[in-house]
Structure formats: structure tokens, C-alpha cells
Specification:
homodimer, about 375 residues, Rossmann fold, seven-stranded parallel beta sheet, 12 helices, 14 strands, about 35% helix, about 20% strand
Chain lengths: ~375, ~375
């Protein structure tokens, strides 16, 4: 299959590009390198040293013989996108190319507007590009489980059968996103739904949980292929952040009571889920929604798990409950369905002590890279 | 009360500004005059000759002694908006200032992106402006009944109590908008919901139906105060468009079977609804949704009503069912609730033959203004 991975230089996109290339697909990457620019803006860094994208794909070709083409540009530039689509004629367009940090979108008005404009316009352009140039191309769009928020009823995969006043319908699941970033994904979901309906586009919207881990089989093949790993308050996410904190003697920073429950998955499952979606395309005019996560944990649970493993390894981490910088429930019902990807063949890598230990061992090697001032939360929702 | 009417030069905004001024409120208008520029772009016009905004407010002051301040600028320019908010310190911000045509948003990619960027960013700026400068100001936002689409269950006012798998919650009503314009309003609704929650903003989102009519008591006071009236395929809406067609010997153009049912209201009720919302502000942190319409009609019903009145007046209109340029159901269940504004005092002007006759008589005076080539639909959803 001929697959474009937009955002293929990022934390999820890069291992996905390698994995798909390894499976024999012809892969090209679109990336504006904006994630690296944001590191400069925030004076932050990846814990792991990362090579340039050109170095990465060169090394990949040396190791495997598989060529990955790079298109350095931005999806908000439609003429650029059109040229790539004309040249590549992709069967699938995997769309990771969005600003993906909730705290980044909450820094101030400019970052909120940037996030929504960038994400929504980029996705609109992809929809128009598919319609105009490759109408049969399958859009595989990364949404987020956070689009749903934390309703007091179970979360279904995208749609909900509702009975009301004696009548029935299956409607889009109501969304209660909790940052300007999460809102941008909800906007995208609505736009994609409409485009599928009027133009017959085939699309899969992957409502992904919080991704943890670092390595896949492919990124482990060579240091130049190493994936980025974020630990700062803006781009670092729970679990990865806790593990890094535990190795440098920093308290594990639980926001508020830590009862916030979310869906999680290993980066190794992210790449497999994309393959599953690509190999099982949506029908023409269909927008499928898959909830892409494997397990649910509360933030407090995660911190306790990491603390235990870190102690086994000789560290002495403490858990601190910080004042929550976000406006969110800290004690709530949470249950989301996630059967569809498993039905299509996903075999989850579950989170056990061994997984935490493996990430921890990698992290320890790079812990001198940590900029400690970047760990505590500085962006407030208020 | 000190009230800003953003979009106060438009079809709904102008009569609202006059009505609120008449009631004794201190009114200022923000408008970028973009609606007039779009007339140039589309080679279209208002059926009624309209004076410049400056001439309009000058005449209003001559007639009533009431001053209306004009701020000529665009909500997407945040520095401009901030200065206006600082200067005016409004108690209420009435927000009509969005691109409001579904067909305009469907012309091509650029118009889709313009509509969503303009509407979503403008509203984000208003939210940030209120938060930063006038946190107690009540946002009265014009949404649209079209945000809901046409679900097979009754439409409630913004929220829906859902029971699912033995649990209950009250969730945002699922939205199925049917154009890039309608989608922009859904994006706004989600953004406003979030801003109310995290910042304690007070907001009322008026999900307005299709507005018909032209005159209010105030706009009738002088020809310089006349409201604009659109009849073209892009900005003209059902009823007004049918009335104009009937006076110039054009067939009444029903799209498809005409079974599409929607909520409608008279422009005289629009202005009163805004007053009701302003006089009964939402609580801090509350986003209220009112469905702002008075009656439901199918498009075929409306055409038949207009035909009958026009025949009484000596015209000979025919009804033609055109191929529908939109992708929408033409035969569907439709029922929306609209009790909240009535509970707060709205006394609807219902649509009867006399109302149609009155609009028709005004239209006849200006029928030589009609550019016939602008009547048939040219924008396709496909």
C-alpha cells in the first residue's frame, strides 16, 4: 500500500512510519518540523537525543533498503499538499500532523487560536485534497479519547443509540472536550463526518488514549532511529513523565487528587492500530470511530505503579499531589468501549512492571538531558 | 444597559441595534462591513437600497436623539477588539458578526476555510476579550438551529438527558450540521461551553431558525434606516426568496421534494429575543441554549403559502422542484423545542397571509433591483 504519514517526525508518527515501512508499505512523510521548533520556543527538549528527519530516513534505508520520502511542508499550505497528493497518489493518508498538547493550547490566546487554526485548517485541506485528487484514499485521522470528556455514562465508539420521547436514533456521541486542543479535535471530527457524508470520503477517526513508552522494534534498531521522549509540563504525559521524575529524584507530580481516569496504550500498539486501520479501510462515505486504547487507569494508580517499580530499581520517589492546573473532575465515573480494534486483530501490550522497568532503564541512560525547570506545571486552565 | 452589537450592520444586527437603542440601552456597533464587500465579490445586492452605516446611525440620532457608536473593524483582530471592550465596558456583547451563509461556505475550499477561521477565531477572541477585560459581560451569541441537523428524535434546547446502560447524564445535544458554515457554529458552541466552564463566563447561545421579514418598527421610521434584504442563491433564504420570486414572475425554486422542515421566525421576534436574553443574563459559568424560532414549516408548505398570497395579489407564480444542490434529507422527522424564550416573555409574531402580504408589498416597490441571474442555485454541496 502507498501510505502518507503526516506528522511523521513526531512521537507517534515516526515509529508509525518505520513500522509501516517494515511491513512492506511504500511510506512517505509530510512534516513541517514544527514540533522541533516548539522545543526551541519552550526551551524544552526530547529526553532522548533525536537525529534530523533526513538522517533518520537515510539510516533506515541503509539498514532495511526501504526508502521513505520526506515532504517538508505544512498541511495548512494547500498548494503544497496538493502537489504531494498528486505525486504520491496514496491509498491511505495517516494524519498525525496536529498540535497535540493540551497545555500548549492553554498558554494564551495566541496558542489557542494557533492550535485550532492549524489543526482545523490542516484537516479541512486534507479533506479537500482527498476529494479533489485521490477520492478513494482512506483518511486515517488521529483524534483523541479526550474528545469525550468524562460523561457519567459509558463512552461508546463514536456513536450512541439514543431513545428519547418514544423515538430512536443513532447520533454522534456527545463531546465534552477539556482544552482548546481537545476542542480542535472535536471540530475536526465534525468536519470529517460532514465530508464523508457529502463527498463519499472513507475515513477512520482513531480516538486515541494517552500513549506511553518510547521504543518499538524498529526505533530500537539504531540510535539514529531513536524516538523522541517528552517529559516537560507541556508535552510530557502521565506515566512517561512519572518514570522520568522517579529517575532524577523528582517527586511524581500528580495533579489534584489523581482520581482522573483515562485510557492508555503502549506506543507499540499505536503503530499496530494504524496498520489495522489501513488494512481494513472504511467504506466510501463511512466515518468509522475506533477508541484506540487498551487499558484504563487513574493518574494516582499510575503514580503508585511507577513508584513501586522505581523502588525495586533502587530509587526513592515520592508522590506529591499538586494543585491541579486544569479544570477537570478528579473523582468521576469512567468507562470507554474499545472492542473494534481488538475485533480487527489488535493484541494489546498491557502495562506491567516489566514494561515500566524497560522504559525506566532507557530513561536512566538519558537522565542527564533533563531540564528540571521544565517539569512543574506552569500553564493554568484559569 | 451598555450593549455592543457585533455585526450590527447586517440583516439581523442592524434592526437589533435600533431596537435595543429604542428601549433606552446604550448601543455600539462593531462591524467590518464585510457583508457589503461580499456583495461586491458575488455581484449581488440587497433588494432594498441600503445607506452606509454612518448615514444610518446619523439619521437614527436625528430622529431619536439616541447615539450609536460605530467601531469599524474585525473581531479576528484582537487588539482592535480589546480596545473596544476597554472603551465600552459592555454589560452584554451581542455577537452576530459571523459569515452566515451555508452556500457561501460551500463555494470552494477557500470559502470553507475563510468561514471557519473567521467565525471560530472571532468567537475565540470575544471569549478571551471578555475573560481579560469585562469578565462579567454577558455573551449573547447567535448560533443556529441548523447545528442540530435533522435527528430522528425531538430536538431539545442545547442539552439532552441520556440514559445508557443503566446510568444517566445530561449531555450536550449531539450536533449534525450540514455545511461548513453550520459546522463553524457547532465549533463555536463547543468553544463557548468550555470557556464558560473554566473561566466562569456567562453566555447565552441562541440557536436561531431561519429569519424572514424585513421591517421592524424602527427600520420603518425612515428610508435611510431600511434593512437589507437578500434574495440571491447564496444569502437569500426561504420565504423571503419565494416572495421576491413571486413578484418578478420567477418560479418559486423549491430544492428537491421540499419536505425539508425547519424552524422559522419573524425578524421582529429576533430583535425581541435578543432583548429578552440581555434582560435575563445567564449565571456566571452558565451556557444557556435557547432555540430561537416560533414555528416549523416544510419548504414546500412555505412555497404553497406564498403562492396563494401572491395569487390573491394578482401574480401568477409557479412552484418548481429543482434538483437539490444540497446533500440533505427531503423527507424526515422534525420537531424542536422552543419554550424557554416564550417562558421569558416572547410573544411570537406568527406567519399568516397578512405577514406575507406586507413583505410582498415592500418587495414590489424594489423589484426592479433584482438581478435575475443571482436567483438560481449555483453552489453545489458535491
Amino acid at each position: 500500500m502507498n501510505i502518507i504519514v503526516a506528522g511523521g517526525d513526531g512521537f507517534c508518527g515516526w515509529p508509525t512510519a518505520l513500522y509501516l515501512s517494515k511491513q512492506g508499505h511504500k511510506v512517505s512523510i509530510i512534516d513541517s518540523m514544527v514540533r522541533r521548533k516548539i522545543d526551541n520556543e519552550l526551551h524544552s527538549n526530547s529526553l532522548t537525543p533525536i537525529a534530523s528527519l533526513q538522517e533518520r530516513v537515510n539510516r533506515w534505508e541503509e539498514l532495511t533498503g526501504n526508502k521513505i520520502t520526506i515532504y517538508d511542508g505544512d498541511l495548512v499550505h494547500y498548494d503544497f499538499l496538493k502537489e504531494v497528493l498528486k505525486q504520491e497518489q496514496p491509498d491511505a493518508f495517516v494524519h498525525f500532523a496536529e498540535q497535540r498538547s493540551a497545555p500548549y493550547s492553554m498558554i494564551d490566546r495566541e496558542h489557542a487560536v494557533y492550535t485550532q487554526h492549524n489543526n482545523v485548517t490542516g484537516t479541512l485541506n486534507v479533506l479537500f485534497g482527498i476529494k479533489e485528487i485521490v477520492p478513494d484514499c482512506h483518511l486515517i485521522k488521529l483524534g483523541t479519547l479526550g474528545e469525550y470528556g468524562t460523561p457519567n455514562i459509558p463512552i461508546e465508539e463514536g456513536y450512541l443509540e439514543i431513545e428519547h420521547k418514544g423515538r430512536k436514533d443513532v447520533l454522534p456521541y456527545p463531546k465534552q472536550p477539556n482544552s482548546f486542543y481537545h476542542l480542535s479535535k472535536v471540530h475536526d471530527s465534525h468536519n470529517i463526518t460532514f465530508a464523508c457524508k457529502i463527498w463519499g470520503i472513507r475515513a477512520t477517526d482513531l480516538h486515541q488514549g494517552i500513549v506511553y513508552g518510547l521504543d518499538t522494534e524498529e526505533t530500537k534498531m539504531d540510535p539514529i532511529l531513536t524516538n523522541r521522549l517528552d517529559y516537560d509540563d507541556v508535552f510530557g504525559t502521565a506515566l512517561n513523565r512519572f518514570i522520568i521524575q522517579s529517575t532524577i529524584g523528582h517527586d511524581l507530580t500528580v495533579y489534584g487528587k489523581g482520581g482522573q481516569t483515562r485510557g492508555f496504550l503502549n506506543i507499540k500498539d499505536t503503530v499496530r492500530c494504524i496498520e489495522i486501520a489501513a488494512e481494513n479501510p472504511a467504506d466510501k462515505g463511512e466515518l468509522r470511530v475506533f477508541n484506540q486504547f487498551t487499558e484504563e487507569f487513574s493518574v494516582a494508580d499510575l503514580a503508585a505503579k511507577v513508584k513501586r517499580v522505581a523502588e525495586d530499581e533502587g530509587f526513592e520517589p515520592q508522590i506529591t499531589n499538586l494543585e491541579n492546573p486544569r479544570v477537570e473532575l478528579e473523582d468521576h465515573f469512567y468507562h470507554a468501549e474499545n472492542t473494534k480494534l481488538k475485533e480487527l486483530g489488535l493484541e494489546p501490550h498491557l502495562l506491567d512492571d516489566e514494561v515500566i522497568r524497560e522504559i525506566l532503564e532507557t530513561v536512566v541512560k538519558h537522565k542527564d538531558q533533563v531540564i528540571e525547570t521544565n517539569i512543574l506545571p506552569k500553564v493554568s486552565w484559569k
